[in-house]
Amino acid sequence: xxxxxxxxxxxxxxxxxxxxxxxVPEGSIVTLIGANGAGKSTTLxxxxxxxKPRSGRIEFMGEDITGKDPxxxxxxxxxxxxxxxxxxPDLTVLENLKIGAYLRSDSIEDDIEWVxxxxxxxxxxxxxxxxxxxGGEQQMLAVGRALMSKPRLMMMDEPSLGLxxxxxxxxxxxxxxxxEEGVTILLIEQNANMALQTADTGxxxxxxxxxxxxxxxxxxxxxxxxxxxxxG
Length: 232
Ligand code: ATP
Known about the structure:
Blueprint: E1 2-11, E2 14-24, E3 29-33, H1 40-47, E4 55-60, E5 63-64, H2 70-76, E6 78-81, H3 93-99, H4 109-118, H5 120-124, H6 135-147, E7 153-157, H7 165-180, E8 184-189, H8 192-198, E9 201-206, E10 209-215, H9 216-219, H10 223-229
Parallel strand pairs: 3-8, 3-9, 6-7, 7-8
Antiparallel strand pairs: 1-2, 1-4, 4-5, 9-10
Helix pairs in contact: 3-6
Bound molecules: adenosine-5'-triphosphate (ATP).
Adenosine-5'-triphosphate is lined by residues 11, 14, 16, 34, 36-42, 190.
């Protein structure tokens, strides 16, 4: 469904991503794990059209989308839940959700109800300002807003960052549920344990390169992965 082939990305003289290839089959959850600065966010931002690659190819549903602009990519059904959530603090929950549907001209009422059914907390708080929500609620809103574009592929940049363990568990169970409802997921995480438990396939990234890949359940028992990312 989604394929990256030999992608390299530079910021000036810094090689942030070096010749990586990966594939995300339709209906799967794929995770990219790795330390700070490994190039994970750069990879997602490049897919989303926010950064232009130096070389390589990005294919979605058989189409070459390399270097296309962000609105075109959202229109194709790829959405990014950015690191740090970036919700609009001075808009209400409902207004934030409506912004997620900005490229659509069809009716969005059913999708608002769909998002509210996934996140009953957001329904209760639909008139609350985004900036006054808790960290976990803001993450739910960021995911809900991304779903309003009706994505086929949802990319998530560190959804568990800064959240309490119980809230992290909630977020990952919702990620599974969204996936069961037909959305393919590409997830980057420093919480490798939760990510590998959730994902069908994992890729390990180190200083711009993919150094290891395999089934999530196999990587979680891999000795090198355990030492580097799972605390031993
Ligand atoms: P983290 O988990 O800390 O977010 P990451 O794996 O997502 O890390 P990236 O944010 O992709 O890593 O960063 C990869 C490299 O590119 C780092 O060396 C970083 O300093 C550099 N980098 C990222 N964004 C920029 C930018 N806008 N300009 C210059 N260098 C950048």
